[in-house]
Amino acid sequence: MAGKKVNPRIVSVFVAAQGLLGSATVRDLKKRSKKEVRGPKWFWYLWGGSNMLGTITYWTIGRRRHA
Asked: Could you tell me if residue 48 is inside a domain?
């Protein structure tokens, strides 16, 4: 991998996407009750708001569907 350079534009896009998705995750968690979230909310705040995998997991698994 020595010698390969990462395009700064690609990094910027991923950082911006993580910032937007992470803040959307935290905003969604704030408006949901404990019954509407699978697992403890503090876990989703930490994991879902901090990295892309956690964010995607929250939106696909962590939210309960409205009945």
From this structure: yes
Task: Name the residue range of residue 26's domain.
Answer: 8-62
49: which residues sit within 8 A by CB, 6+ positions away? 22, 23, 25, 26, 29, 55
Please report where in the chains the tokens 């995998």 appear, as a residue: 53
Q: What is the pLDDT along the chain (67 residues), one digit of tens a residue?
A: 567 888 999 999 999 999 999 999 999 999 999 999 999 999 999 998 889 999 999 999 999 987 5
Let me know: does 55 contact 48? Beta carbons within 8 Å.
Answer: yes
32 inside domain: yes
Examine residue 3 and state whether it is found in any structural domain, yes or no. no
Do residues 55 and 22 lie in contact, with contact meaning Cβ atoms separated by under 8 Å? yes
Beta strand extents in 2-65 (DSSP E only): none
Q: Which SS3 state, helix, strand or coil, does residue 43 take?
A: helix
